[in-house]
Amino acid sequence: TEGPEQEVIFRQKYMPGFMGISDYTWMNKLEISIAGQVFSHKLFHYKLVFSGWTYAQLVFGGESFESLSTGLQNAFWRSGGVPQTHRTDSLSAAFNNHYEQETLTERYQKLCAHYSVVATRNNKGVAHENGAIEVAHSHLKRKVDQQLRIRGSRDFTTITEYQSFLDVIVAKINRQCKTRFDEERKHLNDLPKRRTNDFCEQYVKVTSSSTISVKRVTYTVPSRLMSHRLLVHIYDTRLDLFLGHEKTLSLPRVYAQGHLRSRAVDYKHVIHSLAKKPNAFKYSQLREDLIPEGDFSLLWQQLTAEHVSDKDCRYMVELLLLAHNYNCEHALGRYVLKNHEQGKCMSIDMCRKLFAPSTLVIPNIVSHQHQISDYDILLGGLHG
């Protein structure tokens, strides 16, 4: 009964439309996979405190400004309005933790100003202030786990299918709080006329290897862009590349892990150049990345089980050229791998005959010009 005074937690009463909260949460314990591959990811999770209305969105990379901006704006527009305040944890994307005063970053300030929402944050080191969103995290994860058990599988064909699965669960949660949300929605501030930017920009120079470097990731681009200076709009899930004012290409965004660099290589961007000098494939720094995953990768492993020969390199380059020219990557890879596993080596000529589109033979149609007098027959006789 004796001792120092303890800190007392005073439960807060929230008014409708006053506060929205958001945070990121890891989903890895649920062991989700996409097309058989383990899918390491987080969710951006937003909640209106008064009603409990929820929004959740997949995040492939880290807690970046792009994912925060995309997720928060999607939540505002999905809910149909903006709360007076938005509270978040000490997210590096939103707050500049390198300064003692921990001021908002310039981009986050502009985002909040665009929506006329007051940005607040939890006090550093006070865990219970983030309790509302942590409870919401646990509740959502339990719901997801339950539905996965009912579904009978934690594997999804595509990321889009998985996001749709999550959307159904979130919609069910929101139906349960519909009455309170209908009340809260009346108190939300109006949305602006348009969204604001949810990307950052970077200028890059395309190298002589037909690559660019963005956020510690090396991407290949079509060789026609070599030596050009491009403007890159960096979104959470994609890169949009502009040459001047013209959008010339979109690429899926890849995230580097930790402090390491990563690569996003598409053989289609460089295969025509590589086909002119196939021996360059043997010692290329991008060799393993140039080979598509799946059947082509397995075929390459089998071809080079003992050593990498010039013949194997030329064969693989010619196969990739066929795959690109005739848009038959999946079918060609499956066919060649299956035959190779049966001890049959399919020649390039044979593959070309099987997968190249048939040449259309246009018949030579001979027509005869009729006489002018033939029209008299149609009119029922001669007319002078």
Automatic annotation (TrEMBL):
Integrase catalytic domain: residues covered: 12-200
One example of a Gene Ontology biological process annotation: DNA integration
Classification via PROSITE patterns: INTEGRASE
Protein name, as recorded: Transposase family protein
Residues in the signal sequence: none
An annotated Gene Ontology molecular function: nucleic acid binding
Gene3D superfamilies recorded: Ribonuclease H-like superfamily/Ribonuclease H
InterPro entries, sorted: Integrase_cat-core, RNaseH-like_sf, RNaseH_sf
Organism this protein belongs to: Colwellia hornerae
